[in-house]
Amino acid sequence: MVARADVVSLLKTLLRFDTTNRAPGDAEGELAVAVWIHDLLRDAGLEPVLLAREDAPERANVVVRVPGTDPSLEGLLVHAHLDVVPAEPEQWSFDPFGGDLIDGYVTGRGAMDMKDMAAMTLAVLLDWAASGERPRRDVVVAFVADEETDGAYGAQWLVAAHPELFAGVAAAIGESGGVVESYDGVDGPVRLARIAAGERGTLHLKLTATGSSGHASRPAEGSAVLALVDALHRIGHHDWPLHMSPLVRAQLERTAAALGVSADLDDDDGVLRTIDALGDAADVALFTVRASTTPTVVRAGYKVNVIPGLAEAEIDVRCPPGFEDELLAALPALVGDGVAFEHSVREPSVQAPIDGPWFDAMVASIKHVDPSAVVVPGCLGGGTDAKAFSLLGIACYGFAPATVDPEGRRRSGIHGVDERVPVSSLRGGLEILAHFLATV
Q1: For a 10 Å CB count at each end of the chain, is N or C smaller?
Q2: Are strands 179-185 and 49-51 parallel, antiparallel or unpaired?
């Protein structure tokens, strides 16, 4: 009997690579972990390729294709990013890059986001290589850099520079979905999982105001700072209308039905009451039913008694599916005269079908492992590498599964302190993922 790859050991090793991505052009560790993955897969008999931009060889990616037994079927992409957000070790109760096993958890920065998915995917690939098994359809796996910034060295670059690697691929799975969790329903606990079938669009803004410099004791009309502050106030306090996309409507309706909660989605007040009644089970629906424009960066001045002639700001803009035209039409009046603006990022919302074979196969795999689970679609409030891969016409889903820990341990600490995943949830997620990749 062929020994199975140990997903816990794989995750512990991945977590011990410090792959912190601080800002554009400021990251580390991606080459080292990519080389480790490449060599592991090569030594197992697969044919991975190691890829990086010529101007940044240390920002490496690994792509491998496993041919399916039926070449007439469309291919599937599995993508997982290897970079992580920074950790502040002084705030943690264990080493963020220790990859330790503590009280039934695998601990470390990236345990949830998303080296757990990378470890599960590696385990499936190594099992296939050891046993000689093959999936029904081609499965392309991409372990990528730079998701935590903008993908310029990872998914965005791979899509632009190497689209041939994804030839024949029709659907993809990545982070943020497929996790089974327990919620309180009207008639008792309900095990619920959300598969992300969409994301809000990302349309970040850079604002620039100009005016005359001068002595602060003699202020005059046309202050760049005041023009910028006025624009930020209008944008930051704007009450965007509710926009119920079909995806979010389906999410709320099906979640409410699962929990036995009454859903009233006919008007704005009813939508907000429904979201409130669902509590944590509503996930981020409070944000995905409307746009958000959040000022995050402001730059102006260098000396307290000097009026600056230039003031700049950046705004995090997120847009629900189907609302982009309305949002774009409203921006000029919100910014106002005297302030220029441009999109520093413009990535449309992502949507994938929730009534087809791909979604059905994910549901079936979750229920294969946890028959009592109720599976609903969901929409992410932020963004993932799905936005890049969708540019190739690929239907992208968030499906990085995990199961409920029988002793009540919960995944926690994503982008925060003491990030960790229960061992049992990780192993259950591997069982779901392996079933899906073998049967889809």
Answers
A1: N
A2: unpaired
